[in-house]
Design a protein that fits this description.
Mean pLDDT: 90
Largest sheet: 3 strands, mixed
Strand content: under 5%
Helix content: over 70%
Order of helices and strands: HEEHHEHHHHHEHEHHHH
Number of strands: 5
Distance between the termini: 57 Å
Length: 325
Amino acid sequence: MTSDALAATGDRKLDTAALRHSRVAAVILIILAVITALIFAQADGDAVFRLSRPNDPWALPDLVVPAGPFTWIAAAVLAFLGVRQWLSKTGKGTALSLAIGFALVIAAFLVWATAGKAFSLTGMLQATMVRAVPIAMGGLAGVLCERVAVVNIGIEGILLAGAFTGALVGSLAGGWIGLVAAILVGGLFGFFLAAMVVTYRVDQIIAGVVINLFVLGLTSYVSSQVFSEFRFLNNAPVFRSIDIPLLSDIPVIGPVLFQQNIFVYGALIMVAVATYYLFHTKHGLQARAVGEHPQAADTLGINVYTVRYVHVTIGGMVAGFGGAF
């Protein structure tokens, strides 16, 4: 078979996969449209979203949204996006349609839940950023491991180990030392996972489950037998929010992004740095090469074992940081 024939076959496979994904997205969007119409569109009254807080330097007027009309419009747009994806000949725009669809569903839910009441949108977004830190750090740890072809099932256990270490060491030596200890313990568990998976060829799923069960058992025992008796060991200080001058005064965006604690700032920085590192640096390219085709990477002189050890360990440190939250 010629190279042109192979290329044509590959293009046909890609087109088929894109169309299949488009059809699946269409079904999801239509289901969301039905749910929105049957549940959320039954709301009565206006949803009032407060965009400013009492002490904000600049006060914005409240955002008043008619609940019924908005949710019906959201349902109609969802249905339109679903039909559009189903009729698409190329399957393009699937990700964008899904992003718009999920954003509309979230907005419709908020309007439905707030109908007839007032709700601080700024406060909700600010709290959401804080609560999302452990999930984001766990996801980032998974990405760093997955890019080098290591499935890290033990992320939950590493998060728990970071939380336990941060609470224990933070209670004894202070918050910052507790945070550093949590990161180091996360890295230690990451290194342990890498050793089992890379060096000793233990099944990745089994290795991750071992970490989860070990950490769960250890922390449960210590919490019930030690923390309950010596309560001062579970009294770590709380990191207060740090306001960034000028930026924190921006309406809505300021409180959400620039009036946060060190964990939110650290999470935002880590996500940005990891994205740049993986897709715009030589070492990031090597990591992706190891994950996608380790034999070819080894042929080019890349030490596959070292790359996997480093990235899985760093992933563990990221999860430890998220657990310390």
